[in-house]
Here is the input.
Amino acid sequence: LGWKHGIPRESWLKETDMAPLLIVIVVKSPYAFLTSLYRKPYHYRGKLPTGFSEFLQSEWRLHSRDGLGRSLPNPVELWNRKHERWLQLKHECGIPFETIRYESLVAEPEKVLRDIHQRHDIPLLSKAFTPITTSTKNAPKTIDDYREDVTQKTYLEPYSGEDLDFIRSQLNPQLMETLGYTFESTITRSR
Here is the structure.
């Protein structure tokens, strides 16, 4: 069970018997999220901007399932609002939530899963960890490719200095801190 593109209705979470359930929220760096969203703009409504910088500053029209209204000023605000809402639900619903960073999950999947197991006393189905090594979306990519993307920050390749400045001006600093992210201020890889 998962919600990737929308926010579950608070009433559904409160009215459903979730006693044996742990909700795991996987968050992704806003920079990696925006790069992914540009490369694969699932459910984008309207004409997709041709350049990355234009994309970052264009209106993001929402679907009703997003649960965030009709539109947002830009996709950076989409990242802010989705994560703010998840954290709000985490505190309001009285349901066990676990927030993990995508980057940690990709870098050390066994450690992340064992930590969740220990914190929530969830029985392991097997003592041996069997990692998934191939991509479910991009057949040629492996877990090593995703690790490199995270550790080398290759997702920053389409960014200019102006893009980073714009994103910094749009991101919620408190949310960034809560989720353990820092602002990117320089391009670490060539464009």
